[in-house]
Amino acid sequence: MGYHENYLVWANEADLDASLKGEVAALANDAEAQEEAFAVPMAFGTAGMRGVIGAGINRMNIYTVRQATEGLANFMDTLPAETKAKGVAISFDSRYMSQEFGQEAASVLGAHGIPSFLFDALRPTPELSFAVRHLGTYAGIMITASHNPKQYNGYKIYGPDGGQMPPEESDKITEYVRNVDDIFHIKTLDVHELRAKKLLTLIGEDVDEAYYAAVAGVSINKDLINKVGRDMSLIYTPLHGTGRIPAQMVLRNAGFEHFQLVAKQAVADPEFATVPFPNPEFPQAFDMAIELGKKSQADVLIATDPDADRLGTAVWTGKDYQLLSGNQIASLLLHYILEARKQAGTLPSNGAVVKSIVSTELATAIAKDYGVDMINVETGFKFIGDQIKHYEETGEHEFLFGFEESYGYLIKPFVRDKDAIQSTVLLAEVAAYYKSLGMTLYDGIQALYKKYGYFAEKTVGVDFPGVHGPAEMAALMTKFREEQPADFAGVKIEEVEDYKAQTTKHADGTTTPIDMPVSDVLKYILADGTWIAIRPSGTEPKVKFYVGTSADTKDAADKKLADFEAALTAFRTE
Question: Which keywords fit this entry according to its UniProt record (predicted)?
Fold first, then answer.
């Protein structure tokens, strides 16, 4: 059916939820808005489904949440009875409709006889991942739109290992979701039936305490924290999200006593009233923390996004606060971990670090220096989780650290997704380490550049809003594939890695296979070691362009970065 026909189905649905009736009626004479909401159904990307809250098949609402959950439940119905009986853990963040969507998911699962373990209040994404493993459930559902603006919400599915459901399983679930023809009459059970039939268990402090105990193992040097960290001045902001209670708890448990909350941003506010985007990648997210920090010249500012899986930081330089990039934070954490393990004599001979293919090569240089393998995976933290699972099954490597350039890090694998709560504790310890040397985290990254070379990276997102956005994004990817550039900024392209075709094309015309899952990603390797990658976002209507380069000096690296960005933009827009 076309978008208008889909709209009429909703407009004529007698039992349509009262909260959506007015919105549907308001779209009666707005063809553009109808097309946006009703032309295509929501799709699962690298992090589940995510979209604007509202009425329609391309919106987050109780019906699309029920549909997604019905798909999961139908898939679980095909599993052995004992596997299905393990149930599903469910958590939610501070966004509009998050708690309601979590309860809706439980009600659909219960109608299939699948037990749910629902958190009694908002919890971070990493704790949901932990809960799946801790409780031994078959799956997990996290209701969150992570760092997106307030209009959005989302739905992530996690597998038995606590990682986001890998492509094979998520593709099967998507098939089941699409086979749900009547989204208005999916069977549900109300909360009283769920409780009476023991199909809903509320979870809370019992899981919290187990998670905090696991996070306590992230700290490496307790003496350092006691001597330096205890008096170090920290500012923390959860950006109106789930991090407030767990971040305070783990910092205090680790021995960091002198920290303050940004009070206005400690409120779990679905409006995210104090920030244009609740994303620690954006400098504006630190405005209030900087204002508070300047009053005491606090050593370190830390911000986590609403579901507390991403972390950003800024450090006092003596004059102002300097923000660090996700790549810089990851490099500092990695270097500290490897040096500490080396000094303690616990650095394994088969150690491995796992990062996405669009993350900094500074980390590769650091890992090589310590005799540790660097494993590159496709973008999406689920692929890092897959590697950890593989290492546990085969013993091939011991996992030491994982990260993505987009401000996501994992230190200990009792969680299988980005974990800003773990990262908060370790980053504070790394800051204490450098403070003990009379240095800041900013000084620390400069020291790494001096040793390993000056690395510079940049990510640029080009938005493609609207229902036609996916087609426009696909056309742009086709342009780069069919109009193959020979160079960027005068530097020859040596290799083109096409993760959709799963081949690497070399300068001499030969090709070699890529042994990774199929993904719509292109990556160019240039003659000077620079790399450029292009991929459509899995969760937002945008194409992301990544550039990574290096040089002997910061100025030279920054100039190369600017030149390549300009060349990339020129080719894209010509």
Answer: Carbohydrate metabolism, Glucose metabolism, Isomerase, Magnesium, Metal-binding, Phosphoprotein
Please identify every residue annotated as catalytic.
146
Q: The domain 211-323 belongs to what CATH superfamily? A: Alpha-D-Glucose-1,6-Bisphosphate, subunit A, domain 3 (3.40.120.10)
Closest to 119 measured CA to CA, from 212, 206, 50, 196: 206
pTM given for the model? 0.96
Domain ranges of the chain: 1-39, 41-203, 211-323, 327-451, 454-573
Question: pLDDT over 70 for what percent of the chain?
Answer: 99
pLDDT at 299: 97
What does the alpha-carbon distance between residue 146 and residue 129 come to, in Å, rounded to a whole number? 14
Angle at 124 between CA 120 and CA 127, to 5 degrees: 85
At residue 237 the predicted structure's pLDDT band, cuts being 50, 70 and 90, is very high
24 touches 39 (CB < 8 A): no
Contact 425, 435 (CB under 8 A): no
How many whole angstroms separate alpha carbon 533 and alpha carbon 480? 11
Q: What is the pLDDT of residue 47?
A: 58
How far is the C-alpha of 399 from the C-alpha of 388, rounded, in Å?
6
For residue 113, the model assigns a pLDDT of: 98
Contacts for 464 with CB less than 8 Å, ≥ 6 apart: 470, 472, 473, 541, 542, 543
We find that the CATH architecture of domain 41-203 is 3-Layer(aba) Sandwich (3.40)
- Bridge-based pairing of strands 49-52 and 88-92 is unpaired
Answer whether 41-203 and 211-323 agree in fold.
Answer: yes
Give tens-digit pLDDT for 368-418.
999 999 999 999 899 999 999 999 999 999 999 999 999 999 999 999 999
Confidence band for 541, pLDDT divided at 50, 70 and 90: confident
